[in-house]
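Technical annex, item 7. During the second reporting period the consortium partners agreed on a shared format for inverse folding records so that results from different sites could be compared directly. Each record opens with the tokenized structure and is followed by the designed sequence. A conforming record, contributed by the partner at site C, is shown below for reference.
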């Protein structure tokens, strides 16, 4: 429990940094300089007003200087990141696998909110995550991949790396083909290339079968929640652009923690 509590504390701090990335990266602004400031009045935020979640609550969600309302996304990202980091440690223990899914959680949280707010999926997170996922697949083998059973003579690290490569290439290729066909038939873009790169990143972290499961979950969530949102807000279904990257991020996190986590947990308790 102590490790999970420390992971949650670390998640709060990382969540604060992710908020900077979510706001600045789609606008091509530096995430290093200047320091934290109010988006409305541009006044620098003092350290005592920049404590994750707590400062937002104490300030009642408003800037101390101009009293402009601070978006609820800020404490939500911090709390969600903390919860996912703690859950990773509770699921995999204080291991390299937990660190892998802590990184994966941070990537998914950032991409969820950048796509939700701006319909942009920054390459720093999609392509950077793709390379990180491929590298980690060899050092932290996938627990849910079928390849070790199909290739019993192969080292598990090599089979895991192959599975990550297949997940990245097949998932991205499938999405690219769907996007190309849609654009050809409808004469407009349906899926952006950012979605293709994001699917490659998911495949690198989750492997082929779990990546396909994440895409399926994302499609179901996008269909149900997307249609409901369009109907409630009275948008045009033909013109409204769904943040499909957000649904991909949610689906990937559900699959990662439900599938990989349950397999790991079962392995620990089975005789």
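Designed sequence (site C submission):
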């Amino acid at each position: 429990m102590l490790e999970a509590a420390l992971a949650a504390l670390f998640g709060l701090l990382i969540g604060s940094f992710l908020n900077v990335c979510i706001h600045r990266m789609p606008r091509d602004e530096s995430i290093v300089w200047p320091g934290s400031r109010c988006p409305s009045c541009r006044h620098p935020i003092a350290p005592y007003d920049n404590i994750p979640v707590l400062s937002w609550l104490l300030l009642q969600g408003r800037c101390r200087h101009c009293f402009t309302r601070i978006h609820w996304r800020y404490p939500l990202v911090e709390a969600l990141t903390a919860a996912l980091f703690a859950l990773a440690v509770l699921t995999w223990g204080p291991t390299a696998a937990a660190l892998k899914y802590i990184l994966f959680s941070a990537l998914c949280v950032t991409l969820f909110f950048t796509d939700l707010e701006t319909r942009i999926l920054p390459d720093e997170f999609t392509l950077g995550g793709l390379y990180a996922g491929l590298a980690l697949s060899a050092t932290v083998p996938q627990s849910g991949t079928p390849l070790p059973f199909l290739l019993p003579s192969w080292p598990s690290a090599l089979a895991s790396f192959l599975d990550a490569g297949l997940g990245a290439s097949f998932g991205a290729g499938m999405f690219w083909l769907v996007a190309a066909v849609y654009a050809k038939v409808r004469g407009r873009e349906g899926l952006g290339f950012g979605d293709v790169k994001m699917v490659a990143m998911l495949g690198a972290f989750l492997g082929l079968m779990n990546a396909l499961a994440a895409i399926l979950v994302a499609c179901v969530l996008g269909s149900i929640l997307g249609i409901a949102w369009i109907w409630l807000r009275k948008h045009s279904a033909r013109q409204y652009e769904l943040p499909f990257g957000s649904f991909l991020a949610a689906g990937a996190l559900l699959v990662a923690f439900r599938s990989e986590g349950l397999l790991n947990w079962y392995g620990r308790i089975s005789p």
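The chain has two domains: 1-94, 95-271. Residues 261-271 have pLDDT under 50 and may be disordered. All partners now use this format for quarterly exchanges.
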